[in-house]
Design brief:
By secondary structure, this protein is an alpha+beta fold. It contains nine helices and 17 strands. The chain has a domain of 265 residues. A three-stranded mixed beta sheet has the order 1-12-11.
């Protein structure tokens, strides 16, 4: 109101119209509120943990750097102080190597893996009476891709005495004790053992009680694998009975009631078989019997199929003759055994003996330049193995 003129009286009258201001609070309360201080809320320092972490990281880095430098100095000092000693040890090692006789190597040494037994420098792939020594023989039929390969192990008698508390175990005892622990896949075979069901000893051999859900008769191949592996595994028994859990005779599809199995192979040839791991073994052609040992030995010069391989080089010429107890194999190309792969020759000779043994005959080999070679005396019948395909005992 710029045009209005205020007088003292009008101002005084206006002030009188304002309501009276009253404060009914006690004086003490007003005083206390005045002297109280409002708490101060500090803003957190969010950067402080980051700063601490950064400082710690820098400190650790400096410490590690110092340690590395110190180790480098120590290592250099150690290398300097040990160089003379290392040179002396190297010289001693070279002198020791020079003092050792040079190892004999065949000019045609094969890179294939194989199972061997070597006693006093004599190389063998099978088990012989003289190689058993203070050990116990365990045989087992392994399989790969529905083919059966008989293998053998020599278990130290120290372990046998400890495990069986001084008693001599049978093949059944050995199987129950060790079959489950054998890593067949690591050995190059299929995972097949142990057998399902129950194996028990009888007066005439063993009996295999099969559960209803067994799969040994799914096909003719599986039946063959079962029968061949079990007869190769329990070679020391007279017969093997295959029954149901109630004791009744088991029946396999395609064959009907299972007759008692008699361990042992007859009238078969032992061919070379190579596993997927590269190991080479001797395996009988179970489903390929021969009428005579002459036919069986002659068959070893050719591959019967894509799986089994000949043990006699195809370019070699030989003649086979036989009598009631003896079979003679004569090579016409005057074979020099020293010029050949040693393990292949051993495998060939053992295939002769194993094959002839299925006809209950011994073997004489003629036509070799050497009369004695690798423990074989060619003026006499070759020794007969106790079991083929020795593999080092894997459970030591």
């Amino acid at each position: 109101m710029p045009n209005n003129k205020w007088t003292d009286e009008s101002i005084e009258d206006l002030l009188k119209d304002f309501p009276a201001i009253k404060d009914n609070r006690p004086k003490e309360k007003v005083y206390n509120q005045l002297v109280q201080k409002e708490p101060v809320h500090k803003r957190p320092n969010r950067w402080l943990p980051l700063l601490v972490a950064a400082l710690a990281f820098i400190a650790v880095g400096l410490l590690v750097s110092s340690i590395i430098n110190q180790n480098g100095i120590d290592s250099a000092q150690n290398r300097d102080s040990s160089s003379d000693g290392a040179e002396m040890k190297t010289q001693e090692s070279l002198e020791e190597q020079e003092s050792l006789p040079a190892a004999e190597e065949s000019p045609n040494e094969s890179s294939d893996s194989y199972s061997t037994a070597q006693v006093d420098g004599i190389l063998r792939t099978a088990v012989y009476e003289e190689t058993i020594g203070d050990q116990t023989l365990m045989t087992i039929g392994m399989t790969q891709n529905a083919f059966v390969i008989p293998v053998s192990f020599l278990i130290p008698n120290e372990e046998i005495m400890k495990t069986f508390e001084g008693s001599m175990p049978t093949s059944l005892d050995l199987y129950k004790e060790y079959a489950e622990d054998l890593d067949e896949v690591a050995l190059g075979f299929d995972n097949y053992h142990p057998y399902v069901g129950t194996l028990e000893k009888t007066a005439t051999g063993i009996r295999h009680l099969l559960p209803q859900d067994h799969q040994y008769d799914l096909a003719s191949a599986s039946i063959g694998v079962y029968m061949d592996t079990i007869t190769e595994t329990f070679k020391d028994v007279t017969e093997i009975s295959v029954v149901n859990e109630d004791g009744s005779s088991a029946e396999f599809s395609q064959v009907g009631p299972v007759e008692k199995l008699v361990p042992g192979v007859e009238n078969l040839a032992y061919y070379a078989y190579q596993t997927e791991h590269g190991e080479i073994y001797l395996a009988p052609g179970y489903n390929m019997p021969f009428d005579s040992v002459t036919e069986a030995i002659t068959a070893l010069g050719e591959n019967p199929n894509d799986i089994y391989k000949a043990t006699i080089p195809q370019e070699w010429e030989f003649q086979v003759s036989e009598t009631d107890k003896l079979v003679q194999i004569e090579f016409t190309n005057n074979v020099d055994l020293e010029s050949l792969d040693k393990i292949e020759v051993v495998r060939m000779l053992e295939s002769f003996v194993l094959t002839a043994n299925t006809f209950d005959k011994e073997v004489v080999v003629k036509g070799m330049q050497q009369e004695n070679w690798n423990g074989f005396d060619f003026n006499e019948a070759l020794p007969i193995p106790v079991a083929p395909n020795l593999i080092a005992w894997p459970l030591q």
